Amino acid sequence: MCYYLYILTKKGEFMNIGSVIKYYRLKNNLTQSQLADGICSISHLSKIESNTYTPHEETYEALLLKMGVQLKKELEHQKRLEQQLGRFIDCALHYDLDNLHKIYEELLDEDDYLQSTDLVNQYELYKFRYYVLDLQMDKASAQQKLLEKLKASFTAPELWMSRFFQALYFTTLGQQKEAMDLMYQLDQGLQSIPQKLEGEFYYQKARILIVHDRLELSAYFAERAVRAYEMHHNYIRLLHAQLLLAINYTRRNLSTQAASLYEVVKRNAYLTHQHELYQSVLYNYAELLKNQKQGNQAFELFSELKDVVQPGSYIHKAVIINLLELEGISEEETLQLIEQLRMPGTPKDEEYFNIYSDYYGKREFSQQELLNYKEDKMFPFFKKYGYIKDTKHLSEELAAHYKEQQDWQKAYYYQTQFLESDGE
Predict the structure, then answer these.
(1) Which terminal residue of the chain has fewer beta carbons within 10 Å of its beta carbon, N or C?
(2) Does residue 36 form part of some domain?
(3) How many CB atoms lie within 10 A of CB 200?
(4) 396-407 pLDDT per residue, tens
(5) Tens digits of per-residue pLDDT, 25-79?
């Protein structure tokens, strides 16, 4: 376990003096013997540098002076770094990605020095958050291992943050069960949550719950996130929380409330140049309109989105599936869209979209062949790989079909699958 000892300067400011002395000694290529000569013993210096002994004022001032380091400037330097780290944290909390990248690069230039200060835990924690947010998962994995080594020196809020950021890491990797388990553990330590992270915790928990189709509970946390973001004037994240709430309303068939929120978030995302958020609003709002049989409006939003997203990306292919389900598309356009579904992607998602491309290609064949394909290929794949929304929709459709055919055994089976996928 590593304990840091601090000295209180004449101005009443704290400094992790031992680590600072070691930093400058190494920077000046001095041995402990060279630095200690004429000031203190080597063993004394070793204890100072390892933060197991707090030196007298005359001792640390002499050591710093020998290396040309002025205490006043050192305190000012640390104050600037503390402010810079504060801005880095605020950018992460407020989703200010442009400035987040810029400040990260600036902090990297001070990396060695930061290791010698009492800012190191916050710095390393938010580097982890940055890597996850920026989808640098290899660096995030390495950072997670580093945080395990630092864990013994964490305060209670820092320990809570490390677990929270780890949950976000699992979510980004698609390991939803691990993320959910950590989130439940974090509920037990809410007294340690840093106030600024309150809204983010509620928002991320609502996101994980909606993935598991726990809609009522997800709405509860999304509403708490909205209130927390409003209280902290975190307007970009407020838009994210409102979008999540609108998606929740859509899933619960609260169409009027969902449409109202989509309009608000769509307008504000556009005005604030939140391009990814704007695209997410278009997609989810278009799906709502499609389900409400407002095909023309849905077609307009899906078409707008298709023109701006990366061809072959997940969202591009998801848009194509929705366009294929709308009426009024020509046979030639249909064939072109089906072909685009087969563009290369990640192995699992590629198979997912290939299944849909085959399905739409089979619509010209007999209804029985289409039904067999749904049962034998689509339903098992969706259920196996956790595509909850697709599983729910298809099981509901198959249950309705077999009720009409009075095949009660199969109708019961798919009805139970539909209820299992419903989450609550």
Answers:
(1) N
(2) yes
(3) 25
(4) 999 999 999 999
(5) 888 899 999 999 988 999 998 988 887 777 888 888 899 889 888 878 888 888 8
Q: Which domain holds residue 16?
A: 7-69
- Rg of the chain's alpha carbons, rounded to an integer? 28
Question: Rounded to 5 degrees, what are φ and ψ at 15?
Answer: -145, 135
116 within a domain of the structure (yes/no)? no
Query: CA–CA distance from 25 to each of 45, 65, 208, 210, 260 (Å)?
Result: 11, 11, 48, 53, 62
Q: Got the DSSP string for 146-214?
A: HHHHHGGG--HHHHHHHHHHHHHHHHHTT-HHHHHHHHHHHHTTGGG--GGGHHHHHHHHHHHHHHTT-
Token pair recorded at residue 336? 């072109």
| Residue 59 belongs to some domain of the structure | yes
- Is beta strand 14-15 parallel, antiparallel or unpaired with respect to 7-8? antiparallel
The C-alpha angle with vertex 344 and arms to 342 and 347, in degrees rounded to 5, equals: 105
Q: How many domains does the chain have?
A: 1
Number of Cβ within 10 Å of residue 258's Cβ equals 22
